[in-house]
Design brief:
- By secondary structure, this protein is an alpha+beta fold.
- It has two domains: about 130 residues, Immunoglobulin-like (Sandwich), CATH 2.60.40; about 40 residues.
- It has two helices and eleven strands, in the order E-E-E-E-E-E-E-E-E-E-E-H-H.
- A hairpin with a 4-residue loop joins strand 6 and strand 7.
Length: about 190
Amino acid sequence: MKAGTLLISCLFCLSFAPCAEAQVTAEIESQPTAPIQITSAECVPVQTAGSQCKASVQFASKGLWTAYGIKWTLTYQNGRTQTLSTTHDRSLGSAAVAGAFKPGEVVDFETGAIGFRFNGNDIPLATAVVRVDFVIPAVGPAWGDMKSPNYQKVMATRRGFSQAMDYLRQVYKNQGAAAMHKALGVQ
């Protein structure tokens, strides 16, 4: 028997033809102390492969939050499980989305198509559980799993951005605007 191969793709359903799998309502893990709450979650079958999971999160009525992570635990009909994590960080985004999530703001997001293939056959999704992994405020301590690989990745990206900005400030201060533009590759 061949070992199972994990099929993760970023394909979206391009056809309106009905899919063979049934929709799976995701169980939302209760986390009453989390500064964001998952208000709805589901995984729907897609024509191209597997399922696409969607969720809505709502931020607390107080505070400003700059990033969060969501963790999905997917179980397939053959008993295999898969963990999928997604992060959203507004601190380093474009001007249109940079900043913080506002109090009470609702954010919808979705994964790409995800699935599990064993011996050449697609295995349908049986259950899905979703939870808040971490939340980073604009000011103050983060909430959740600070040892999460995704939390660590967000923080490393922020440190790298901060170091780059410090370098550019130093170039500007010591050598002027022309040198800074050159360092940026802008003439």
